[in-house]
Amino acid sequence: MSPRLVVVSNRLADGRPGAPGGVAVALGDAFDDSGGLWFGWSGNIVEGDSALHVQQVGRLTLATLDLTRQDHDSYYLGYSNGVLWPVFHYRLDLADFDAGFIEGYRRVNQRFARQLVSLLRPDDVIWIHDYHLIPLASQLRALGCQQRIGFFLHIPMPPQLMLAAIPQHAWLMESLFSYDLVGFQSQADLLHFSRYVQAELGAVAQGEQRYSAFGQLLQAGVFPVGIDVEALTALTHGKEARDMYERITRAYSRRRLLLGVERLDYSKGLPQRLRAFRQLLKKHPENRNSATLIQVASPSREALESYADLRLELESLCGAINGEDGDLDWTPVRYIHRHVPRKRLPGLYRAARVALVTPLRDGMNLVAKEFIAAQNPADPGVLVLSRFAGAAEQLKEALLVNPYDTEATADSIQQALHMPLDERQGRHQMLLERIRRHDVHWWRQSFLQALAATQPHP
Ligand code: GDG
């Protein structure tokens, strides 16, 4: 029998409504019928002590912990999303280093470790996900855990000197050496990691993507996360998505639709995108009364000031574009600050002529891949993709743009809107092949195989 897989992530894809994140989507798809244990935060905030909730869903055991208000504010909002998220997305200006959140981050990682250890079996394989839980393996090792432990970073790895701005950077990065394998989304991330550990921690490169430091040997690797292409295709042909497709194509029958879908997050480049769209209308006026941008920005981390500020900026920009560029019978931007149900999303993707996936920095970006999977191969839409998304290393046939360059992005949108059918088909076919070859099952298998091939932890 193969060893049991134990996955640990901050949030679980447990069917709760609310802001979806790419990690929960990817892990929900990655767990196959072989089952295992999935451990993380329940999503609940409680007063006082919290219990461990264990629930069986088919062959999968879900074990979750609640957070106290104080832990939630320091570990989740504070250190994870107020320090690590901005710095790892190159936004030092938005990081709050002085608020003392680190204690809460340490405390919750310790609590996760103590609870998890009581559920572990000797031959389990443990796979820990993302920036909320970087020190978890070192806490587990301190409790005597000798199982193989892998870590996957879903967000970008910043360059050495940017990471070094975090007061606790050396502690954080040293704790990665308690893992057997550390995985990244892209070659660019691995390069940053490699430079950092050698320059800041004195690690020594030991052949192919291996580093020794602190008496440990750490294997690193690149494992770009994928989507479940089959499942998304099936959803695209489901009733909800077809209804959505028909509703949208009917409502916008005289328009050319552009689409953006993401959590409302400053890493996603929404204001820059709106400015590029506005530039398109100015520079290529034939798109007036035609090109219409549907922007879904689902609510996310609203308790943080930087997110509230972004929301206001977007509302103001959309108002300005619609007020100044729109007409009595044409609203250039449809901005929706709501969550669209997952079963309907593929219908929206399929109705769009162009997807605008233009983050300023993104670990991978699953929306880009979902858009490709949902297209009609006979009449596919065009993907405009930021070169700063991890996905750009794989999706070369998209129209790659620099989202900071408003003028050039507007020109690429123009090219996408007017691309001839045979070119659209050719690009789409290549992109579809790529996301099929490296889908979410490939991602899981290749990471777990690489983890199994590491030397057991001393
Ligand atoms: C992190 C990394 C990396 C979005 N709005 C709605 C909705 N979504 C879904 C999308 C997609 C997921 O959420 C978002 O995934 P992304 O990858 O685009 O972005 P993050 O949430 O930032 O994810 C990212 C990912 O982890 C995985 O490793 O790619 O770089 O930042 O699945 O469809 N889903 C629904 N309604 C919405 O309104 N149903």
Description:
The chain is α/β, with parallel strands linked by helices. The protein folds into two domains: 5-226 and 440-452, Rossmann fold; 229-437, 3-Layer(aba) Sandwich (Rossmann fold). It has 16 helices and 16 strands. The protein has helices at 22-30, 69-88, 102-117, 136-142, 160-163, 169-175, 187-201, 229-236, 239-251, 270-283, 305-325, 345-351, 366-374, 406-417, 421-437, 440-452, and strands spanning 5-8, 36-46, 52-57, 60-68, 125-129, 148-152, 181-184, 204-205, 210-213, 216-222, 256-263, 291-298, 333-336, 354-357, 382-386, 399-401. The strands form two sheets. It has a ten-stranded mixed β-sheet, with helices on both faces. Strands 13-12-11-14-15-16 form a six-stranded parallel β-sheet, with helices on both faces. A hairpin with a 2-residue loop joins strand 9 (210-213) and strand 10. The protein is globular. The two termini are 24 Å apart. The relative contact order is 0.12. The mean pLDDT is 94. The protein binds GDP-alpha-D-glucose. GDP-alpha-D-glucose is lined by residues 20-23, 25-26, 154-155, 225, 261-263, 296, 298, 339-342, 345, 362-367, 370.
